Structures are given as C-alpha cells and as structure tokens.
Amino acid sequence: MTAESIFPRLEPLLPKVQKPIQYVGGELNSTVKEWDSADVRWALMYPDAYEVGLPNQGVAILYEILNELPATLAERTYAVWPDLEALMRAEGVPQFTVDAHRPVRAFDVFGVSFSTELGYTNMLTALDLAGIPLVAAERGDDDPIVLAGGHAAFNPEPIADFLDAAVLGDGEQIAIAITEVIREWKDEGRPGGRDELLMRLAESGGVYVPRFYDVDYHPDGRIKRVAPNRPDVPWRVHKHTVMDLDEWPYPKKPLVPLAETVHERFSVEIFRGCTRGCRFCQAGMITRPVRERSITTVGAMVKQGIEESGFNEVGLLSLSSADHSEIGDLAKGLADRYEGTNTSLSLPSTRVDAFNIDLANEFSRNGRRSGLTFAPEGGSERMRKVINKMVTEEDLIRTVTAAYSQGWRQVKLYFMCGLPTETDEDVLGIADLAKKVIKAGREATGSRDIRCTVSIGGFVPKPHTPFQWAGQADHETVDRRLKALRDSLRRDKEYGRAIGYRYHDGKPSIVEGLLSRGDRRVGAVIRAVWEDGGRFDGWSEHFSYERWMAAAERAGVDVDWYTTREREENEVLPWDHLDAGLDREWLWQDWQDAVSGGEVEDCRWTPCYDCGVCPTMGTEIQIGPTGRKLLPLTVV
Amino acid sequence: MQRLRVRYAKRGRLRFTSHRDISRAVERAVRRAGIPVAYSAGFSPHPKISYAGAAPTGVASEAEYLEIGVTTPCDPRQVKTDLDGSLPPGLDVLDVVEAGPGALADRLEVSEWEVRLPGADREHAEEAVQKFLAAGHVEVERLTKKGPRRFDAREAVLRLTVPEGTGRTAAQVPGQSCVILRMVVRHMTPAVRPDDVLTGLRLVADFAPPVPPEVTRLAQGPLDAGTGALADPLDLDRDTTRGGEAGPAGEHVAG
C-alpha cells in the first residue's frame, strides 16, 4: 500500500479539533526517514492521548534504537481524541504516524506498548481507523504484524484475538531481533506469507503468537490446558531481560514536544527491576533482577539529554529510586553540576526513609521545592506485613518529622484500598496515621501551617504476583471503606482541615481487574465495549462502568468470576504459559506467607530466597557501588 | 538588565501551536542556545520572557513579538542566529534588536492579516466586503471562555480588500480557486480577529467559505497617521539604542 503522507487531507480537519498541535509532529529530535531507505518499518503506538504517550520511555527508547539500525525506520502514532476520530471517519483519513503522517497500515509492524490494560479499546480504534482487520486471523499479507509489549503484555490473553504477537519484558534486544527476522523473510521473497513469518518469530521462543496455542476449558469454566497447536512452537514463552544498562544508554536524544504533555522533563532510568518484594506490585515481580545503571553513565546521559532538549527538569526513574547504591553521590553530583542553572531534579518513587529527606534537599537546591510523596500503601502495621511493605509507623513519623522540620510544608501519602485480608479497621487506620503525621509535624515545627494529603486507590490483583490467586474486593466494599475513611478525616476538628483526601471510586478497578486476569473469552467484552463507543478508558470522563457491565452480560462473561473469585493453587491461570521467570511454587508460598504475616527481605542485601528469576533467565543482580564520582562539568 | 526584542514567524503546521506551546518551546530553545536569560526571584523562578499579543491557535504569523531579559549584554545578531537554530523549523526568528525606551505593546496598534479561502466564490466575496464596509456597525457573537460575547466587528477594520491573484494553500485541491482577503485591523478590546470579520461577512451577505480559512498575520505595528502605512515597531529601538545600525529596512506594508 502507498505510504504517501496523509497530511494534506488531515490539515483541513485540524482547525476543527481540540489541541491540533498534538497531531502535527515535528518534535525536536524526531526522525523522518525516506520510506525507500528502509526495508523494515515499525509504527510504534502508545495507546493513549499524545499528551500521555509522548513522554513514555518504552516507546521513546525503541523509536531511537530502531531508527539507529540501518535500513530500518520507526515512526510513532497515538490515540486520536473522539473529535478527530469522527472527522477522520467522515473524510476517510486513516490512522497516521505523527512523524511523516504515513498510514499505519503501510508499515511492517504495528507495535503497541501497553503500560495498562485500559488502552485496549484505543488499540481497536487505531486498528479500525488504519483499515487493519480487528481480528488477527482475518488479516492478510498486506497488513502489519500487530505486536503488543509493555507490562500488560505479561497477560495478553484478553486481547489475544486482536494480536498477531506479543513480547514480554525489555524491548531493546528483541525489537532488533524481530527486525532481522522480518528483514530476512522479506529478502527471501516472503516465503509462506504471513503464517511463515509468525512461525519464524514463534519458534525463537522469544515471541508469543497466540494463534499457535489452543486453550481448553473445564465444564465449570476454568482453564484445562493451554498447549501449542503445531510442532516447533515452544510450550512456554520467556521474558526478555537486558543485562548491563550501561550498554543501552537510551534515550540519548529525548523527544521534545510542542504540545503540553504530562511529564515535561528529561527522564533517565537509573535502574530496572526491584526486589523489595511488595506483593501487590506487578512491576516489581516481572522486572527482576535489579540492574543498576552506573553513576557515570547516568551523569553522561543527563548531560547529553539536557543539552539536546533544553528541559529544565531531570527525573531519575526506577521503581524505588532511593535504592540505587550510589544515589547520594548521584544526587549531590548532579545538584553541584547544575547549581545556579534553574535545573531541578526529581526522584519519583521514593520509600519512606529519613535518608530520602537529605536526598530531597539536594534535589531541590536548584529549582522548585515541590511536595514530598511517600507510599506506605497500607494503613495498619498488619496490612503492611500482608503486602510486604516493610515500613513501621515509627519510620513514617520519623521521616515526615524530618521533612517538616527541614522546611517542607506538604507531604503526600499513597495508600491502597481493597487489599487481601483487609478490614474496615485497616483502612480507618489511615486516618489515625495521617493525624499522627500532622501532630508530629506541628510539634516539630511549632507551626500549624503544614499539610498532608492522603491519596488512595483501589487494589487490583495482577498476574505474576503472589496476589494473582486473590479475590479482588468488590467495588461496594471498596467504596464503603473509602467513604468511612473520608468521614473519619472530615469529622476530626483538630487535624481534619490539615489533611487532604483524594480517592477514586472502586468501579474502574473492577474493569481493570477483569482485563488484568482475564482470558481469551474476555476479548468479546473488549470488542463489544469498543463497538458501543468505548474509548479512552483510563480517563474518568470517558470511562463507563455501565458500558463494560452491559457488554460483559451480552458476551456471557461473569465479571465476578474473573475478579472477586479466589483461585485454587492448582487452577491453570491464563498466563501460566508465559514465563516471567518467577517460580510458581515460590509465588504460592509467598501468597500463603502473606496471609499468615510472613515477611520477605530484599535479596540485594540478604541471601537469595529462590523466587526463581535469576536461574531461569540466566540473569543476576547488578548493583554498585562503583566508587566513581560525577566530575563537575562546565555548564553553559 | 538588557532586554532583547524578537520578531518571529509561526509558519506551516506550526501555526497549530497555542500561545502556551510557543512559550514552552521558546524557553527550551533559549536554554539550548545558551542565551543568559534572567530569572524572576522567588519560590518558583521563571525566565524573563514576555509576549505581545500572540496570534490565535491555528493562525500563522510573520510578525509575532517577544522580549527576553538577559543577565549579560548580548549581540542581537548572535542571538538571532542562536535562537533561530534552537527553535523547531516553522518557529523562525526574523529580527532581534536591543530594546529602547517605551513598551513594545504600545506600538502594536494594528495588525495586517491575510485570509485565504480555498474554494470560495470571488464575486460573492467582493460583494460581501462592500456590504461590510458600507455598514456602520456589524455586531457579531463569539464564544469565549466566559460564554458567548457580542461586539461590533466593523469599527476596528481600517481596510478590507480582495486583491487580485490566488496563491497556493496547504489545503488547496488542484484546480480549485482560492480567494484572498487582506485586512488591517485595529487592536481593541474586545479584540476583533479575522474570524470575527468573516462572521461579519456571513451576516451581511451570507458569505461562508466552504473549508476552514487559512489565516496569516503579515505585520503588526504602529500606524503612520500621515501615510496610513503600517510601520516596523522595532525601528524605534534601532534608532535609539547604541550600535543600532539600521537593520533590515523597516518593512512598510501597504494596505
């Protein structure tokens, strides 16, 4: 199909839509290559609005790596808002990339990165606008390979019918490997068509092709067996792990958007993986082991990224950034380097630990002093033991006292509601904790001008975690507890006005739960919701719980069975054939330990507890300290 | 503190940038270019960059203006090169001068606009323009953030013509005609924009273009009372600042 720019047809539509700049591309450091200069071409999608998708690290990294390959090009596409979707349908304008405004259907691969399951309906919109059949089995040789990645791809079963393939884990090396498989197949004249290409990908063991696996069910609806339906297709598909992040220093040239986006900063991953062992945390389980990027590589990436972008904020990303073995030297080194330049540093995801206040002080030296955020997650000591978030009330009070007495005025606390074994008292414990925080802050500062905000969301059990067997709390229970907590905070005359409260109702969590632990039968619900107009399910103004429930009923899918039902040890889970490296018996034991209050240490500092990842995947923990320091640079 | 006045253009697909988009892009470009921009003091320091009367989102411009405060004196020619090199193509720096006395905003009395109307009928356009100019008062309504607002679109329009010739436009279909309107509009409160004038043309003569118009601001500046011509607002800075060699001769845009 032709890859000519559709921009002349798009341009007359842009004056009629909200924020048209998000559709025009032209970002600094974006890449437009000649179509004919490449023989393998990727369209990469983040299935949400541009303002959310552009800052996504996964897409940015793959975009850069693929465009660095010879004879390969990659462009980006995002979900279009309903106003433009309607105009595109009326005028016959297909889903396009923002780089060269080429139609998505002209590419070899349509790669979609799912951080969350709530992007599934947006993928269907993009496929449909692109003119690509929604159902993978109906696609022909001219259609791209539709490939999913990202954390949600660790259970892609609910969207299995719409996918040609899925990849688990770090994308850097496997994206290159897939490119070479496609190149070879095209060079040979596409022998065997689409089917053979998918076979070549599946045989490698690193790419999951759902159509090559059959799922059998018991009469009661549980899965009986998931098995390959052809020879040479492996029984299990394994995740990918990039070892030595210093060898992969991406992004080098950050995309700088013209439109406003949710993160306006240059972000560097300072490590991947987390072994803190929080039982609710899918990211911490599926990205093991911990692999640090060295202080010197981070320093060089920050220097280049700031120069190339002009951003005035640097984010040091990871799942628990203060755990980097040289975070102190890194913070001080960067703060020294950017002294007097109005470049601020931020450290998302920090633990409750007094040491982090010193870090925060370093980080705010050159820029704004925003609030501090900590995530105790559970309101009572008992609850925190269940989720293995090893933070005592004493730790928390000590940490916030240090923050308040050093001039911070606002502390945010994150919690979850609906955790396994949770009672009303556990949630009300959050109110007690918040009051103690304010009391300690007032005593430490002698001032009443301090605040804390309690932010709380519904817990969703995720695949590949010890809670994958747990029954999810129903939304009535979650909403009742959230309301009781609100009332308890509001009622308090002494502290209530110093405590902010932000919460989301429990209904969206049920849909997220259905999509997280669903199997192939849930695909019919996703399609029905999409056909009924479901779009942008991650946005509360677009999300409709009623639409999801009505679609489930039409599709004959029992939502409770997928969400609130607790699973038995021997039940075949929809993702059991997808290998995140975690030993199933260890996960089950950890689930049992959770219920009985047993805790797990972090294997970075204590002996291995046999979660299974390193031996299965041939990986190992990579941490410092390297002992090196950041050298001061001459800053313009 | 030295202040630099910058004339820049917003062209092509970058006409879809909003004022906020441009201000972020300029702040980043200033940092990348290494221009020693001054920052405000206080809790949340901001670079000292101010904007005068930005063209609306979707409207192209050859004459947008901003002012940068710098901590050490800079050569305006160097700033022009560096800043232009750091801005994305489509946001193009046309002129930089050191600011003289007086506020730039005070000099931006009128704007000259070009409005391209692909597929519109020329005779109908000419008739609508005549009727509009003949009217003493054309009340139009525009939806603002505060709700619908009614005001007169006629008084601010100093000149309105339908010049000969048609140019190519981005949205133009080959073989399709394109009517061009030129107008000089006084800056007033509430601001009268080219789309308000188009609304007026629809009201007086039922003239409605078939596709969205492509609007470009050609110039902004003081109006020469004698000649009625639009003058370059930066000429005054060139005349008064030291080393102020005559820059690109002030573009006097005739109406």
Give a brief outline of the structure.
The complex is a heterodimer of chains A (636) and B (255). Chain A has 636 residues and is of the alpha/beta class. Chain A contains 21 helices and 18 strands.
Name the poorly predicted regions of chain B.
Answer: 243-255
**Rg of chain B, Cα atoms, Å:** 19 Å
- Text of the CATH class of the largest domain in chain B: Alpha Beta
Helical segment count of chain A: 21
Q: Which percent range describes the beta-strand content of chain A?
A: 5-15%
CATH class of the domain at 7-232 in chain A: Alpha Beta
- For the record, what is the CATH homologous superfamily label of the largest domain in chain B? Pseudouridine synthase I, catalytic domain, N-terminal subdomain
By DSSP, the count of extended strands of chain B is 10
The main β sheet of chain B shows up as: 8 strands, mixed
The percentage of residues in β strands of chain B lies in: 25-35%
Low-pLDDT stretches of chain A: none
N-to-C SSE series of chain B?
Answer: EHEEHEHEHEEEEHEH
Shape, principal axes of CA atoms of chain A = globular
Structural class of chain A: alpha/beta
Protein name (chain A): TIGR03960 family B12-binding radical SAM protein
Domain Radical SAM core (chain A): 260-502
Task: Give an overview of the whole structure.
The complex is a heterodimer of chains A (636) and B (255). Chain A is 34% helix and 13% strand. With 636 residues, chain A is an alpha/beta fold. In chain A, helix 3 crosses helix 6, helix 5 packs across helix 17 and helix 13 packs parallel to helix 14. Chain B is of the alpha+beta class and 255 residues long. Chain B folds into two domains: 2-106 and 233-240, Pseudouridine synthase I, catalytic domain, N-terminal subdomain (Alpha-Beta Plaits); 110-221, Alpha-Beta Plaits (2-Layer Sandwich), CATH 3.30.70. Chain B has six helices and ten strands. In chain B, strands 1, 2, 3, 4, 5, 8, 9 and 10 form an eight-stranded mixed sheet that branches. Chain B has a two-stranded antiparallel ribbon with strand order 6-7. In chain B, a hairpin with a 7-residue loop joins strand 2 and strand 3. Chains A and B meet through helix 9 of A and helix 1 of B.
